[in-house]
């Protein structure tokens, strides 16, 4: 019988070695390119204080740190943070933190939430708490950068079934949409061991994000549709990148 994980999906899946194996093709080069494009657009002052919220293993935080900014990366995954900490420097630090909880107050010039790291929680109140914490963490006039999957394209072009074998481990991924959540059911066969994992992300539309952020007191500055910062197209763009400012 496969082992099915029952606690909050992100607490077990992100700490699982199978997460690393399934997504092993994510590279630093893409992160470096995206961050460079954002910095070219944002033009942060030297030494700006930045937070990479839900930083994972720190790809984007590392890029920002190499540019000389004062960067903190936080994530709920102990395993990811332990890996990220290997890249720590004087101006780049990491910490284990649940993004539903307030981290700092009026402290950061920039907060980044990248690679669809929002909408993890079944309770709408908790998802909105994350956005409220971002507002709280920013200095007045601070900038929030959100990078999310383009929900319309993702749901309309859903690949419902995928099988792959990586390093001798078989993965079966089934995708579906339930109650506005994009759900991935992930079945793993590793020799004689079998596991079931899940990913669940609420499919925020651009309008819902804008409404939620404006209600908190953000002003929308710009939107983009990919990591090259091309114009956002709701039908064709892969990403929805939103830049807003705390009033």
Q: Quote the average pLDDT.
A: 95
Class from secondary-structure proportions: alpha/beta
The CATH architecture name of the largest domain reads 3-Layer(aba) Sandwich
Q: Using DSSP, what is the number of strands?
A: 12
Approximate helicity band: 25-40%
Domain count: the total is: 2
Provide the β-strand percentage band.
35-45%
Strand line-up of the largest beta sheet = 4-3-2-5-6-12-11
Radius of gyration: 18 Å
According to CATH, what is the class of the largest domain? Alpha Beta
Task: Outline the secondary-structure elements.
Blueprint: E1 3-4, H1 9-13, H2 17-22, H3 28-42, E2 49-53, H4 59-66, E3 70-75, H5 78-84, E4 92-96, E5 108-113, H6 124-137, E6 138-149, H7 151-156, E7 161-166, E8 169-178, E9 181-190, E10 193-202, H8 206-216, E11 218-224, E12 239-246
Task: Summarize this structure briefly.
The protein is of the alpha/beta class.
Description:
Helix content is 29%, strand content 35%. It is α/β, with parallel strands linked by helices and 247 residues long. α3 (28-42) packs across α4 (59-66). The N and C termini lie far apart (54 Å).
């Amino acid at each position: 019988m496969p082992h099915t994980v029952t606690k909050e999906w992100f607490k077990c899946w992100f700490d699982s070695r199978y997460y690393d194996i399934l997504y092993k093709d994510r590279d630093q080069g893409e992160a470096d390119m995206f961050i460079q494009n954002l910095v070219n657009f944002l033009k942060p002052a030297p030494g700006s204080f930045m937070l990479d919220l839900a930083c994972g293993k720190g790809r984007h935080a590392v890029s920002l740190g190499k540019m000389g900014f004062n960067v903190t990366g936080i994530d709920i995954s102990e395993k990811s943070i332990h890996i990220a900490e290997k890249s720590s420097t004087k101006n780049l630090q990491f910490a284990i933190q649940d993004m539903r909880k307030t981290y700092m107050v009026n402290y950061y010039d920039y907060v980044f939430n990248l690679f669809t790291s929002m909408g993890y929680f079944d309770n709408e109140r908790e998802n909105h708490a994350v956005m409220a914490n971002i507002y709280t963490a920013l200095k007045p006039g601070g900038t929030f950068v959100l990078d999310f999957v383009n929900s319309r394209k993702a749901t309309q072009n859903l690949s419902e079934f995928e099988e792959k074998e990586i390093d001798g481990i078989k993965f079966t991924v089934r995708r579906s949409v339930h109650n506005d959540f994009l759900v991935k059911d992930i079945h793993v066969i590793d020799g004689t061991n079998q596991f079931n994992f899940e990913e669940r992300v609420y499919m925020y539309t651009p309008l819902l994000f804008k409404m939620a952020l404006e209600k908190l007191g953000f002003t929308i500055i710009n939107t983009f549709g990919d990591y090259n910062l091309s114009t956002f197209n709701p039908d064709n763009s892969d990403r929805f990148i939103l830049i807003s400012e705390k009033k």
